[in-house]
Design brief:
Transmembrane segments: 20-42
Keywords: Membrane, Transmembrane, Transmembrane helix
Strand content: under 5%
Protein name: HAMP domain-containing protein
Helix content: over 70%
InterPro entries: HAMP_dom
Pfam family, one: HAMP
C-alpha cells in the first residue's frame, strides 16, 4: 500500500490553513475584547478626572457624589475609601 506524497502534503496544507485561520479569528476576538475593556475603563477614568478637575478649579460642587457602581479598581476610590 503506497501513499501518494501529494495526498499527504494536501492534508498538511489543509491543517496549516485551518490553524492559520483559527489563529486569525482568535486574534481578532482578543483585539475586540481588549478594545471594549479599554474603552470602558478610559471612559470611567475620564469621568473621574473631570470631577476631580472641577473640584480642583475651585468651582466644583463639593456636595456632588460620584457614581460608585461597578466592581473595578475605581469604585472604592469614588466611594472615598
Amino acid at each position: 500500500m503506497a501513499l501518494d506524497q501529494g495526498d499527504l502534503l494536501a492534508g498538511v496544507r489543509q491543517m496549516r490553513l485551518q490553524a492559520i485561520l483559527t489563529s486569525l479569528v482568535m486574534i481578532a476576538l482578543a483585539a475586540l475584547v481588549l478594545a471594549l475593556l479599554t474603552r470602558t475603563l478610559l471612559r470611567r477614568l475620564g469621568l473621574l478626572k473631570d470631577a476631580l478637575q472641577n473640584i480642583a478649579s475651585g468651582e466644583g460642587d463639593l456636595t456632588q457624589r460620584l457614581d460608585q457602581t461597578g466592581h473595578d479598581e475605581l469604585a472604592p476610590g469614588k466611594a472615598g475609601n
